[in-house]
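Researcher: Next entry in the queue.
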Amino acid sequence: MRKPSNKSWQHWNIAVTGINARVESPGPGCAVARCIREHEQFGGRVIGLGYDVLDAGLYARDFCHSGYLLPYPSAGEDALLDRIIEIHQKEGLDVIIPCLDSEIQNFIRLQDRLSLMGIRMLIPERDQFQLRAKDHLSAFCKKAGVDVPETKCVTDPSFFEYCEEEGWPYPIIVKGIFYDAQIVYNAFDAKAAFSRLVGTWGYPALVQRVIRGDEFNVSAIGDGEGGMMGTVMMRKRGLTDKGKAWAGVTVVDDAVGGVVTKIMRALKWRGPLEVEMMKGLDGNVYLIEINPRFPAWIYLSHSVGRNLPIAVLKLLAGDTDITFAPPAPGTFFIRYAQELIVRLDEFESVFVGGAITSKEDKTAVA
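Model: Structure for this entry, 366 residues:
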């Protein structure tokens, strides 16, 4: 087992999960890696951790120096720990930045053991994580004094056949317990969405009323005491079929910012998070969900001088005197897809051995 590194953060080995690049719902990992790799002071290594041989970040050398497959979160924390030990022995990890909702609980359980290995993380406590869970969100919002669309847990798909009689007219939103959501307009589509979501994320599914208005997303880092730093706020300007941001623009909205402040004060969140809100046509701000990690659009933070992934590294290094550029409204992002060229031997290395390292890297072996 490796001892904790005494290197400065600029030379750390940073593992980043969630490095898929699916067009309809990309993971945040590649954007987090890009923030780190493009920072002028960073000269360390970024290691991509994926769950599928087609996760683009495994092969994208501009983002990750090397890549490794992890067991799926459903395998539990023991399987995850065994794999991280293998990777740590090869790479000498200094930091892991988890980027997917479904894996956070496993990392929370492993936090103390990983710390003994010299691996740092900036993640919430178990109670904080549970408070913002989708099935607990309404109760949390009531306590925090934040408006939220009415939400209902559903375990029986027959609900969608008579939901209008119970006061749930279409369209409604059907959500997975951990991730993913779909607006549906009839019972047939609703039951199909329910089946897909519970098949992927388990029971229950959630249904939520549709709020008409503008959607705002805010990313920040919680200090664990109710405060936050590095806030980046954007309004969605283009959506994928799953409602994910395909284009957005940075904004400053006092009403939205005030709601985020209330949420952070109530949660006492530690680490990165994303808050999704709707500003309704009635002028009220409604909390949609709280995601316990960086969003897929986090590269925008680097572009406006508020590089939040780098701020995580500095905080883990003990630097609390972090400064950010002033908020910069009017900066757009537009996501696009492009082909990543992968050699057959690179694909085989991941498919057979579960790992790939750069040929220029003489210190690690796939």
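Model: The longest helix spans residues 101-116.
Researcher: Noted, moving on.
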